[in-house]
Amino acid sequence: MITGTTKPKIIFTVGPPRSGKTEFAKWLLKNPEVIPTDNTLGLVLIDEDSIRLALTGQRFVQESEELVRATKHLMIKSLLSQGYAVIVSDTHSLEASFYPLFEMDKNATPVFLKYNKAGCTKRAKECDSYDLIPVIKRITKNIQGSDFGIFRNAYIAERLKNGDFRCSAQ
Fold it and tell me: What's this model's pTM, rounded to 2 decimal places?
């Protein structure tokens, strides 16, 4: 559980493609007591991949990424203003990607997905998503090269063999 006096309104995932970020976010919706949030109406999932598909009909279009991010941030602000807490499923592998979340909620809390690069690559191949393999390599490098020690509150989530997750404070 989060220590301190203020609970987050925003929880966000950190991990490469095929590491289980969205699966974890959906699991957390069913188990909100694992990371208590500051909300009055509940926890809502914002999935950047779903926004991307809704806007472009495709999994990734580089030219649309600015619009995808802007849409995500507007959705977060709208939900927060109504009293919801949000879990944002996205890679968040660079500091620049999560700074806007801290501008909206100084207590935003990251959840680092425990992953194996080879496992992510295997899952990408299993669903014929070979285009994700260089992305997995790049994001893994970004995550390993970042200083994530700056977070006051952070969690590690690990997928269990039964499909459940174990989540612990870092």
Answer: 0.89
Q: Which CATH architecture has domain 10-169?
A: 3-Layer(aba) Sandwich (3.40)
Q: What is the DSSP string of 92-136?
A: --SHHHHHHHHHH-TT-EEEEEP--HHHHHHHHHHTT-TTHHHHH
The tens digit of pLDDT for each residue in 9-58 reads: 999 999 999 999 999 999 999 999 999 898 889 999 999 999 999 999 99
User: What is the mean pLDDT of the segment spanning 143-168?
Assistant: 81
